[in-house]
Design a protein that fits this description.
Radius of gyration of chain B: 14 Å
Structural class of chain A: mainly beta
Distance between the termini of chain A: 41 Å
Largest sheet of chain B: 7 strands, mixed
Distance between the termini of chain B: 37 Å
Oligomer: heterodimer
Shape of chain A: globular
């Protein structure tokens, strides 16, 4: 079946540090891959997405590349800010699943000044 | 664009009462909406898929008679928690996928509402 695995948190970084949050997936066919961000007490916001192999999604300094050979979609940012503190969810969507999202367990990021 | 709203943002009710939560797509049509439940420091659990003009599809283990879902228009879905009990207290989040009447889905991206915090006393 389809599944998503993320690195466990919490991840604590100093401001301007480099961020990597690992995400790997298992899926049949060619899923679309997403990163969502959730700030405290809020719903999820789409951060970036990629719909096919080798696509790179990017937004607000965050990037992730769809790697089919390693079934990965790692999230990176070169220099994090305190305002990036949130929970990050990796997810996949397969068309044969009616648009349902399969989420990873979420990774909490805390950025200290 | 692609804004989804939820109302109310929080609600406190007594045990045994029913609570209705609305999910609206403000600037796009949504043939499909999803309802999730989230416990503290956990991921989202899909409860049901709501398709405009048809019955909702519930995930295994979700009581359809307790969580009533109605998707009466292309921009509105409602979740009613009937006879609520303290164990129903949770953060409920909806999402919507852009589509057209007749079920034609334009995108596979889900846009999420801000969530509704339900507390049952």
């Amino acid at each position: 079946g389809n599944s998503v695995t993320q690195m466990e948190g919490p991840v604590t970084l100093s401001e301007e540090a480099f961020l990597t949050i690992n995400c790997t997936y298992t899926a049949t066919g060619y899923p679309s891959l997403f990163w969502y961000v959730q700030y405290p007490g809020e719903g999820l916001q789409l951060l970036l997405k990629a719909t096919k192999a080798d696509d790179k999604g990017s937004n607000k300094g965050f990037e992730a590349t769809y790697r089919k050979e390693t079934t990965s979609f790692h999230l990176e940012k070169g220099s994090v800010q305190v305002s990036d503190s949130a929970v990050y969810f990796c997810a996949l969507s397969n068309r044969n699943q009616g648009g349902k999202l399969i989420f990873g367990q979420g990774t909490e990021l805390s950025v200290k000044p | 664009g692609a804004v989804v709203s939820q109302h109310p943002s929080w609600v406190i009710c007594k045990s045994g009462t029913s609570v209705k939560i609305e999910c609206r797509s403000l600037d796009f049509q949504a043939t499909t909406m999803f309802w999730y439940r989230q416990f503290p420091k956990q991921s989202l659990m899909l409860m049901a898929t709501s398709n405009e003009g048809s019955k909702a599809t519930y995930e295994q283990g979700v009581e359809k008679d307790k969580f009533l879902i109605n998707h009466a228009s292309l921009t509105l879905s409602t979740l009613t928690v009937t006879s609520a009990h303290p164990e129903d207290s949770s953060f409920y989040i909806c999402s919507a996928i852009y589509g057209l009447a007749g079920g034609l889905r334009i995108s596979d991206t889900q846009y999420f509402g801000p969530g509704t915090r339900l507390t049952v006393l």
